[in-house]
Design goal:
Two copies of one chain form a homodimer.
Chain A (H helix, E strand, L loop, with lengths): L10 H17 L7 H7 L7 H4 L3 H26 L7 H14 L1 H9 L7 H22 L9 H24 L4 H26 L1
Helix pairs in contact in A: 1-6, 4-5, 4-7, 5-6, 5-8, 5-9, 7-8, 8-9
The structure holds a DNA duplex.
DNA sequence: ACGTTAAGTAGCCAGTTGGATACTTTAGTA
DNA sequence: TACTAAAGTATCCAACTGGCTACTTAACGT
């Protein structure tokens, strides 16, 4: 359940996953990957690939599970790091950025895949973000200013912010030196959106 | 300048571009394209490709230019369709969706490429969106409620909305039957964000 | 010390690829 | 009508691919 991803995997498997992620970032898509090239990048014979994966698609499934595990792990850690009652939302974007940069290739590939062709990788990534969104909504809803807001409207706002954060996160992974600027951008979006939700909600009440 | 894109191109060139876009949508990335397969899909001998393009990358550049031309053309049309003084913003998302569905493959590939690896295609697409953003900001700024808003803050809000719209547009291209839902989502994001900008702006004034 | 199994390797295969060179067809136009 | 240039084709090539079978090495419990 809660174990760190790919921790118990054999060396070769991890090397292959890392090589695949790295190459997929360069190529722009995991679908452009070439089996032999991945093995070469990992410093292994191309046949070793078959010791760990059935084919490329099965490898992508593993990568997607890794991504999902990282996200779950990150959320759990963030939750444990703040006092109960205090909202996570203030720190969540920074946490996301931290997670992302620690597994930069996997995150880049996974987030890009959000709008790729339908497939197991995309489904898993989308589900992770959907879970995260519902988590954040419930978290925010407990704030006094937001308790009166209709859950559906709040969820829509959170979805908007997650789309925005995903975008900025990909920018961050490409230009880590822009971290502060991107965080500020995300924070401003957060403030504007929440102010908007509150304004619209109290107006309609 | 203002001419419709690929209008004067020879038949084969258009066939190849259409085939490439179609396959790139299926594959998830133009970088996964295979020259011979593109030609096959277009019903042409693979050598004919070289009559029109130097290589795959030069073809992608052409595709990017097509995308940019479509966007410019769409904006010009939208501008002409509303009375002067009336803001475009109310209809702009619907217009974007219309444009996108008319050139579904090119738009899908181009918008996906926004977070692909750096390259000419991506640069052109980003520039198109940046131009569109500045256009929209200037347009919105003329509204009475928004005249007092700091341009930089308004631009940030527009950027947020464009990121959101891009996302929803890709969803729309994959599920055209969801058009109305997605348009409503975009409209709600628009209202929330603008309400937020106004609230924050008047608060700090 | 030995046997079992997982991890890794070597070499082969038929099929496909990007690209070159040389040829044919089409369409315009002088 | 004959000439030309653009568009399209046929064929060949070395290089690479995914996947197969068969072999070697490393690790580990007994």
């Amino acid at each position: 359940m809660g174990r760190a991803p790919v921790a118990l995997s054999p060396e070769g498997k991890r090397l292959l996953l890392a090589a695949a992620a790295k190459l997929a970032v360069l190529r722009g898509s995991p679908h452009a990957l070439v089996l032999r090239e991945v093995a070469r990048e990992a410093g292994l014979n191309h046949n070793t690939f078959y010791r760990h994966f059935d084919d490329m698609e099965s490898m992508m499934r593993v990568m997607a599970e890794d991504f999902a595990a990282h996200v779950r792990h990150g959320v759990r850690e963030a939750r444990a790091s703040v006092k109960p009652g205090v909202p996570l939302s203030g720190i969540v974007v920074g946490r996301v950025f931290d997670m992302a940069i620690q597994h930069a290739d996997i995150f880049t590939v996974s987030l890009r895949e959000l709008h790729g062709p339908a497939g197991p990788l995309r489904d898993v990534v989308r589900q992770s973000l959907a879970d995260l969104a519902e988590d954040m909504r419930a978290d925010l809803q407990q704030l006094p200013e937001l308790q009166a807001v209709e859950p559906r409207m709040l969820r829509a706002a959170v979805d908007l912010l997650i789309r925005n954060t995903t975008w900025l996160c990909l920018d961050y992974l490409e230009q880590p030196e822009q971290r502060q600027v991107l965080l500020d951008t995300a924070r401003e979006a957060f403030h504007s959106t929440m102010a908007g939700v509150i304004a619209r909600s109290s107006r309609s009440a």
